[in-house]
Design a protein that fits this description.
- The complex is a heterodimer.
- In chain A, helix 15 (446-459) runs antiparallel to helix 27 (733-768).
- Chain A folds into six domains: 63-160, Alpha-Beta Plaits; 164-291; 310-403, Calcium-transporting ATPase, cytoplasmic transduction domain A, CATH 2.70.150; 418-472 and 747-809; 485-500 and 629-728, HAD superfamily/HAD-like (Rossmann fold); 513-626, Calcium-transporting ATPase, cytoplasmic domain N (3-Layer(aba) Sandwich), CATH 3.40.1110.10.
- In chain A, the strands form six sheets. Chain A has a seven-stranded mixed beta sheet, sandwiched between helices. In chain A, strands 9-8-10-16-11-14 form a six-stranded antiparallel beta sheet, with no helix packed on it.
- Helix content of chain A is 50%, strand content 19%.
- Chain A starts with 17 loop residues before the first strand and ends with a helix.
- Chain A is an alpha+beta fold.
- Chain B is an all-alpha fold.
- Helix content of chain B is 55%, strand content 0%.
- Chain B has two helices and no strands.
- Chain B has helices at 4-27, 36-40.
- Chain B is elongated, with a radius of gyration of 21 Å.
- The chains are: A alpha+beta, B mainly alpha.
- The A-B interface holds A 43-49, 52, 102-104, 106-107, 111, 115, 117, 124-127, 169, 173, 176-177, 180-181, 184-185, 188, 201, 203, 206, 209-210, 213, 216-217, 829-831 and B 1, 4-5, 8, 11-12, 15, 18-19, 22-23, 26-27, 31-33, 35-36, 38-40, 42-53.
Chain lengths: 831, 53
């Protein structure tokens, strides 16, 4: 695949490939853009990039385009949003860099930008695709930096760290510090505990010294590293609930307090080792869980800005670059080809072709005429257009949809956490029992009462219970993350295990946005293959989005005199014959054969007609193709007893075709975002547990409203923000794995809980009867915890064998093998 | 065995130093990105001197 593709971007090479010298070797690239970018990388001496990158990269912008486009970022009003100035006048900013795939990309950017005079430091984090810049504005303008990035084929987006990201970073650091304290402290206390267990040289003085030292080390572990448990328990108690943190806090606090008492009085046992070990294991489990969650968040939060920061305003007919937030209703704004419309408005140009897929999910661009409304967030697909702004900022349609998402999220039905529910009852029972036992012993043998109550608390120390759920969820979350499925919170796995219906969006979810030719119907003497070859040859000269659906042209066909007729199609000569391709009326040349015309009645969109001098010769249907392997995944999900639906904003025709192709019975078309939400709510009202898989902004409300939602990793960030899970892979395959693992996880959780409860039912009466020494209780507790953790670890394997099974279903084609390897490499580099 | 009255406090001092060193590293963002540095070492920085300007 890579041998025949473009050296830089990996796309198929056209007939007239461009040659570029990289590292003193001639390389073939597909376009001047790629050639320029590769030459730039070569000139900077950074060709190592090509050896270490894990996948193809985009071509850079032309110099003159790039310079003008970023100029506006030098404006003070705009910079105020995301640039900070140090005391010495140097400036700092963070950028999100689109197109960063792996560590090689970040290396390239760091070295290329670092070589600019005036640049103090550049750091690029390939995981969050965030670049941190520090430069001297006297020597270097920000626009130069941005333009340089654009030359290299990356798209910079100014980034302001929002409160959530900042909190996540601080939380992560604090948790890491606690983990370090707990780990180091635990090791120390353990070594003293070993000495104590062995009798500490039978010297009471040394014994009390070791206890005192243990107290010294264990205290920060319990109160610094264990602080979140105490805080969590306190929050729970304040709202009159008993959560998992309450028994943990009670056990750790109780063991610590009893040990302190025994240390000071020189009697009984100390449990510093148990307390620190408990804190460390729980902190480690929570830390792992948190890093997974943050990683998913930072990946998805990376593209938080949809609207451009810069707009071109016409002031007295002169274009002027301004910040989008400076726009007001009534302003005239220019939108360049390929740019995103910055505000809602009315079209002031004659006509425009806009891709509104971000908002509507409609995959075909829409033609708007003068005076028709244009919404912010849509992509201008043709020549530059002019519009009169009507609504900006929070009033735009896009902002309204965003708000809809927030509302739906607040209404979301949350399943009560199973383990937390059990734990509350269990904890209540233990506390009650401890009180009763303590009272009984107080009446009978007051001097043993404290010891027995402590034994009860330690033996029932809900290690197993506290670990039962988080251990299983952490292992499952980590295993799924490795398979490309990010779970953003625990409840999601639980909901996923109970899902009865999965709703898919069509464009970008079941399909990957790419389209292909699905049918060629020839007429007369032309064969289907010939018709397709002619059409492909003509379309290879077109920039129209539909043209991408056609296969690469046959180099043997001579194409010339190709002429694009706006809103109609293309005409041109192939091997000396004149052909027209496009709309029906256009392709059927005047005076053509009416019989052929009747053979092809007018059809809905996504159909192009091919004609020659004598009239129509073929009808070609272009359709979206399902994602690779989608059918297999859907079959597997259906085999697991799930009902599958398509909810699409698209027209009924293509939706039905897709549903039939994938063997799905339930589909609904032309749904607006609020309709999708209503349809999902309808399912929920019927008692179904609904999972939604989507990618676009139009899916965001329903993603937020579904019981559990999965956003596509390549989808829009708004969708990912409102989703519980993110599918980081190009294929839907991890979804099937996730459903499987989620069910297994809940089974393991239930096993663990049953074990913990059974263990407690056996040990508790013994402890209450005063038959258990605290050391026996400690051993029982540890063994029980180990068993529970070991059981949870089996989930790692639950995720693995799925891969082999699914791969067998798919015929191993020569093409899919390297693509697979490449994806795996990317995933590893990014994780 | 009175030596342990010296050795254990010494051990605690080392523990304190280790905790301080870790805290310093965390504060300086040493643990923020654990992936890139492993790759960076594979790539030569100075194949060709980048042109000035």
């Amino acid at each position: 695949m890579s041998a025949s593709g473009c050296f830089h971007c990996g796309q198929p090479l056209p007939v007239e490939a461009v040659t570029v010298r990289v590292d003193d070797e001639d390389r073939l690239v597909c376009s001047e853009d790629c050639a320029r970018t590769a030459a730039l990388i070569d000139a900077r001496g950074l060709t190592e990039f090509y050896r270490f990158r894990t996948g193809p990269t985009a071509a850079g912008e032309a110099t003159e385009v790039a310079a003008g486009r970023w100029q506006a970022y030098d404006r003070r009003a705009l910079q105020r949003e995301f640039v900070s100035t140090d005391a010495d006048g140097s400036q700092r900013a963070q950028l999100l860099v689109q197109g960063v795939r792996c560590a090689a990309c970040s290396w390239l950017i760091e070295n290329a930008l670092g070589a600019l005079p005036g640049m103090r430091s550049v750091r690029v984090d390939p995981v969050s695709t965030r670049a941190t810049l520090h430069w001297n504005p006297a020597q270097l303008q920000l626009s130069e930096v941005l333009a340089q990035l654009a030359h290299l084929g990356y798209t910079p987006i100014p980034y302001t760290e929002d409160a959530g990201d900042r909190a996540a970073r601080l939380e992560q650091r604090a948790a890491l510090k606690r983990l370090i304290v707990a780990g180091l402290g635990m090791m120390q206390v353990m070594s003293f505990a070993v000495a104590l267990y062995f009798g500490a040289w039978r010297d009471p003085q040394i014994e009390s010294f070791l206890r005192l030292i243990s107290l010294l080390v264990a205290t920060p572990v319990v109160f610094y590293a264990g602080a979140p448990f105490f805080r969590g328990a306190w929050h729970r108690l304040r709202v009159r609930a008993l959560g998992m943190d309450v028994p943990v806090a009670l056990a750790v606090g109780g063991a610590w307090a009893a040990s302190v008492w025994n240390t000071l009085t020189g009697a009984g046992e100390v449990y510093f080792d148990s307390a620190t070990m408990f804190v460390f294991f729980l902190s480690a489990a929570r830390y792992l869980e948190m890093t997974g969650r943050h990683r998913a968040l930072s990946l998805t939060g990376a593209l938080a800005h949809h609207l451009p920061r810069v707009a071109t305003r016409l002031v007295n007919g002169q274009p002027q670059a301004v910040g989008t937030m400076e726009l007001q209703a009534g302003d005239r704004v220019l939108v360049a080809p390929g740019a995103v419309v910055p505000a809602d408005g009315v079209l002031a140009s004659d006509s425009a072709r806009l891709d509104e897929s971000l908002l509507t999910g409609e995959s075909l661009a829409i033609r708007r005429q003068r005076g028709e409304p244009v919404v912010a967030g849509s992509l201008n697909q043709e020549q530059g257009l002019e519009l009169v702004v009507t609504r900006v900022g929070a009033d735009t349609v896009m902002a309204q949809i965003t708000r809809l998402v927030g509302d739906a999220g607040a209404r979301k039905p949350r399943l009560v956490e199973l383990a937390d529910g059990i734990a509350s009852w269990f904890v209540a029972a233990v506390l009650l029992l401890a009180a009763v036992v303590g009272y009984a012993w107080w009446q009978w043998q007051p001097d043993r009462a404290f010891e027995v109550v402590l034994a009860v608390l330690v033996v029932t120390c809900p290690c197993a219970l506290a670990l039962a759920t988080p251990a299983a969820f952490t292992v499952a979350t980590a295993a799924l993350a490795r398979r490309g499925f990010m779970v953003r919170h625990r409840g999601a796995l639980q909901s996923l295990s109970r899902v009865s219906d999965i709703v898919f969006d069509k464009t970008g979810t079941l399909t990957d946005g790419a389209s292909g030719v699905s049918a060629v119907e020839p007429a007369g003497q032309v064969s289907a293959d010939d018709a397709l070859a002619i059409a492909a040859a003509l379309e290879s000269r077109s920039e129209h989005p539909l043209a991408r659906a056609f296969p690469p042209p046959d180099p043997a066909l001579a194409v010339d005199a190709v002429n694009a007729v706006p809103s109609a199609g293309l005409e041109g000569r192939v091997n000396g014959r004149c052909y027209r391709i496009g709309t029906r009326t256009f392709a059927a040349a005047p005076g053509g054969d009416p019989a052929a015309q009747e053979q092809f009645p007018a059809a809905p969109d996504r159909v192009v007609y091919l004609g020659d001098q004598d009239g129509l010769i073929a009808r070609i249907t272009v359709d979206e193709r399902p994602r690779q392997g989608a059918a297999g995944v859907l079959t597997e999900l259906a085999a697991r007893g799930l009902r599958l639906h398509i909810f699409s904003g698209d027209q009924p025709g293509p939706v039905e075709a897709m549903a039939r192709q994938l063997g799905m019975e339930h589909w609904r078309a032309t749904l607006r975002p609020e309709d999708k939400l209503a349809a999902a709510a309808q399912l929920q009202a019927d008692g179904r547990v609904v999972a939604m898989v989507g990618d676009g902004i139009n899916d965001s409300p329903v993603l937020a409203g579904a019981d559990v939602s999965v956003a596509m990793g390549e989808g829009t960030s708004l969708a990912q923000h409102s989703a519980d899970c993110v599918l980081m892979s190009d294929s839907l395959e991890p979804l099937a794995t996730a459903v499987h693992v989620a069910r297994r996880t809940m089974r393991v959780v239930r096993q663990n809980l049953v074990w913990a409860v059974v263990y407690n039912l056996v040990a508790l009466p013994l402890a209450a009867a005063g038959a258990l020494a605290p050391w026996m209780a400690a051993i029982g507790m540890s063994a029980s915890s180990l068993l529970v953790t070991g059981n949870a670890l089996r989930l790692t394997r639950a995720a693995a064998p799925r891969r082999r099974m699914v791969q067998v279903d798919r015929p191993p084609t020569a093409e899919s093998a390297p693509a697979k390897a490449c994806c795996k490499g990317t995933a590893r580099a990014a994780s | 065995m009175t030596i342990i009255y010296v050795l254990i406090p010494l051990g605690l001092l080392l523990l304190g130093a280790a905790v301080w060193a870790f805290f310093w590293a965390v504060r300086n963002g040493q643990f923020d990105d654990l992936d890139t540095p492993a790759w960076r070492i594979l790539m030569d920085d100075d194949q060709k001197p980048p042109p000035k300007g």
